[in-house]
Amino acid sequence: MLTHYPELTLDRWARKYGPLYSVRLGNQPFVIVSDPVIAKDLLVNNGAVFSDRKEMFIKSQTIFLGRGITATRYNDRWRKHRRIATLWLNPKAVDRYAHVLDFEATDMLKALYDNSKKGAHINPQTYAGRCSLNNMLTIAFGFRTASIHEPIVAEALRLSREFMNTTGPMANLVDFIPVLQKLPSPIKTRGQALSRDLVATYGGLIKDIDTKMKQGVPVADCLAKTMLEMQEEESLDDLDMAILVSAFLIGGVETTASVMQWFTALIPAYPHMQARAQAELDRVVGRTRLPTPADEPHLPYCHALIKEIERRHNPFWLGTPHMASEDFVYTNTNTAADHPHTPTPARIRKGSVVVLNTYSMHHDASRWADPLAFNPDRYLGDATLSSASANLGDARARDHWMFGAGRRVCPGMWVAEREIWLAVSRLLWAFDMVQIEDKPIDLNEYDGLSGRSPVPFEIVLRERFGGVGEVIERELGGFAEMGMGVKAE
Ligand code: HEM
Fold first, then answer.
1. Closest-lying ligand 1 atom to the alpha carbon of residue 419
2. Ligand 1 atom nearest residue 135's Cα
3. What CATH number is attached to the domain comprising 466?
4. What's an example of a GO molecular-function annotation for this chain (predicted)?
5. Looking at the domain assignment, is residue 340 inside a domain?
6. Is 459 in the pocket of ligand 1 (CB under 6 A)?
7. Tens digits of per-residue pLDDT, 161-187?
8. CB–CB of 337/344 below 8 Å?
9. In-domain check, residue 488
10. Given CB 3.0 to 4.6 Å as the disulfide criterion, which of 18, 28, 306, 342 pairs with 336?
């Protein structure tokens, strides 16, 4: 019941057993949280208790080797790694490399424009994947790829996909039955291979940069350089650095790319929404320049469209679970008391894995009328960015829970939001996206163990007006003058 589409099972149980219930798998108790107020009470208000991570056998021990940010326990090593990652992900840092995100979105547009002439069928997956990959490569290593055919594109996307297919909060029995961990198993072999490949690929790129720095060759500012410069002071070993940077390439590529893909999969099915967003763009931005982040507050429908995609198609419905680091008694909620099956006070034992059930929270009919319907209008009154919405005092007013919550909330949300905005607003600005008659888009979700991207599909992109190519060329020309778009040696 929990190996395929576990979010649907957890949702069914939430309807039956209430917004706070527990499940035991092997020797592991799980607490499933399906309500915003309880989520905030536990993960935010009691963050000192609920910010730990379970050292999952496959994900934390086998693949990440107990390092990095995502999988590390709530301890000084995590604080250090999170502090270092934040140096590159906080809002001010994102402003510093805003031109990179701007350039990559424009470059993606250009590739789509060139390849979609004469009604060619386009699979947006690789374009979206390369756009977010280039952003992460530039942030992490200071270089980018010039085309989807460069080997690192396929390899990085393979590594992310393999990660999604070998990990999942509740999917691997071997995570919870210690005796199985000693035996050989296909999933263990795959996890070990993935770990080796991550260290070889991303650790190898750090080594290249290290060599250049030692030779006095100039190196672009990037996370790898930052880590090498502070390696001694922060006592980072090679494995620490390789796994920390892997968190960027795993956590920051498939996720943002998935939202972009959902947009291109969904929008052809809703031509009236597409036309409404484009009319808004024509009115506010016009047809002689591309939309920018500064336009977002003036484009409420485009803004709402993105939030609705994220509500309906969170790429990781069950996020990355937290763990209770001490016994805890939860009493402080009306929501739990309202439900006949939720005992209050509820005892949460030390070591329980706390799963944020965003599927139920995003489909709660008491907040979202007709929750399965795709309807951007529901967000029209919400001008907040999701990164700001995550800090609202009233948990019920938060737009969605895609970025998790509390002290482990996604530190990449500022960059992710910016990337998604640039991609979606510019695709809408440039193209009419239409379905191919004999190739209907399958909106069934990709059945990985943890990630949820659409299954592969193709669409046709038609330039919306004559000057599209010219505007893209002109904007790219501006970047070329800044020396961008040239691959570093
Ligand atoms: C749409 C895009 C993204 C989504 C949906 C997403 C989602 C998440 C979620 C649900 C978590 C777990 C939060 C929790 O424990 O409560 C997380 C953690 C994390 N994310 Fe993201 N993320 C996205 C983009 C990014 C980007 C661009 C980066 C850039 C490097 C990133 C880096 C990380 C890291 C390092 C963590 C671990 C944080 C920790 O354990 O302290 N994510 N993300």
1. 27
2. 27
3. 1.10.630.10
4. monooxygenase activity
5. no
6. no
7. 888 888 877 767 788 788 888 888 899
8. yes
9. no
10. 342
